[in-house]
Structure prediction request, 419 residues.
Amino acid sequence: MPGGCSRGPAAGDGRLRLARLALVLLGWVSSSSLTSSASSTSSASFPASAASALPPLPGRCPQPCECSEAARTVKCVGRNLTEVPADLPPYVRTLFLTGNQLAVLPTGAFARRPPLAELSALNLSGSRLTEVQAGAFEHLPSLRLLDLSHNPLANLSAFAFSGSNASVAAPSPLVDLILNHIVTSAAQRQNRSFEGMVAAALRAGHALRGLRRLELASNHLLYLPLDVLAQLPDLRHLDLRNNSLVSLTYVFFRNLTHLESFHLEDNALKVLHNSTLAELQSLPHVRVFLDDNPWVCDCHLADMVAWLKETEVVQDKARLTCAFPEKMRHRVLLELNSSDLDCDPDLPPSLQTSYVFLGIVLALIGAIFLLVLYLNRKGIKKWMHNIRDACRDHMEGYHYRYEINADPRLTNLSSNSDV
Prediction:
């Protein structure tokens, strides 16, 4: 028994030591596993944080825009952008930057690395652009369509489409150029003619000689500069509708041999003269649209009416009607005869009244003037006699001097008397 009692506490102490050793071992294993898992977790999280710190990849979409790599399209519409996004993906072919606050498009606005080599359609309409600087569209070798409509362009550089150095720049790849409703107020033009500004941009450096479509609608154009179309030999479609053009007399179209459609609707044309008719008739493929112009049906329109009856150039010519004079209003031009076109139109009643009143006033002034002359007839007669006597004395003095100078004897006598 005592031996058993003596072994009992020793055995219990041994078991206690074994239990403590097991707990120590288990604690060490768990701590090592936690340390390894923590290290693996930290190593796994490091690439994500590092990736977030890197700059955006070239193929990523700019934050305020919507991108479709499948359609090669980027839309940054109505985002109030003040500049062109710097991280445009290089795959973009169609770029919409409409409804923003760009204000100024600087030189090299689309210069990127890698370049936007596939961008072929660029829409900048309604972005409140007031200035497009020289070379704004450089580094876009595939750009075919450019829309700058609905921007108040007060300053369109002459080299906006040809590059900052037109003498060495390659021709622009543009095929379609849309410049509808880009006119601004006269106060913002800095004393520049809007027509001249647009013409300078179209002909600078022969850059747009590959252009096929040009739209200049709704710009309040009063006239076309003489050589505005001289550098556009490949033009197919020209849209000048909804302007204020009064005449086309000094514009030449003979170089536009490929022109197919020419829109002149909603202008202020009153007549097309023979020179313009001959220019249009010389174009082999053209179709001209002349609706909604205020044609004045007098003798000056006779040649145009005769031309309309023979030509097939004008589309829907049966809808062209007279606007003036009042008695000819709404009459169809094709139904007019030479006897209907005279140059003595009836004046409006208000204008007739004005002329009658002017005649009465002039008659009263003439009567008053004659009455004043009659009442002062004696004084006027005396004044006339005085003038006659003064002129006679003056002429006699000239005659006396002439006689002295003509006779040598009188000349010597005169000189001796002086001595």
About this structure: The chain is about 35% helix and 10% strand. The chain has a mean pLDDT of 82. The radius of gyration is 46 Å. The CA atoms of residues 277 and 307 lie 8 Å apart.
